[in-house]
Predict the structure.
Amino acid sequence: MAEFRNFIDQRALMDLPLRGGDFTWSRSGADPVASRLDRFLVSLDWEEFFPEMVQKRLIRSFSDHFPICLESLVVARGKAPFRFENMWLVHEAFSALITEWWGEIQVQGFASYVVASKLKYLKEKLKVWNRVTFGDIRGSKIKLLDSINLLDLKEESSGLSSEELKQRSDAKADWAKVCTLEEISWRQKSRALWLQAGDRNTKYFHRVASLHRKFNSLSTIEVDGTRYDTLPAMKEAIFGFYRSLFTESEDWRPGVDDLPLTLLIQLD
């Protein structure tokens, strides 16, 4: 096994996540044995072109081996939660804006309520500011590169004016800033905080974040011994489990000095 692992490491190959089970070979009997023998190995460049691919274990009939296939992972994403972006910290106006927004809203009440209300207000402000100020970073990179390339082509054919030279210089400076922001964002998503930002590790951060997304997604769940593998069935099973968990089914009520305690009911 160690030699096999060295072979994989030397050739920089990846073993994609396996869905549908933990093993690809098993033998039943008095002493059952199971192992992971079959797998697809892909290169890093291949995984970059096909980031949503996973291995899926299929149902077997007579063989000791489970067949496996490569399958595109369809991740159903709900509403994205609010997340503080570290790239906001490099913006020169960020601290002043936070101070301004924090003082805009006046709330009366307990200290915890005041803080929670102000943080909620800040969240909405940051969402709008992020969309207007940063927008689509990848799209901005492509537009800036296209602008630089057009000016380079014009320089080769007819030369550039002083205004166009400044325009290209500004575009290159903006492109460098956008690259830094992109690297900071992907570094945060990858959680590889042991690497320093600024070393152009964007591709590595992107790959690690993609792997996190693959391993963190659910393809099947089991509730009370029943397995569910479709998205609607999984949602219904999870909802039903927690609904029953927090529903009272007993008529017994605790008593405190003969004070009546009302029954908790579910509001529709």
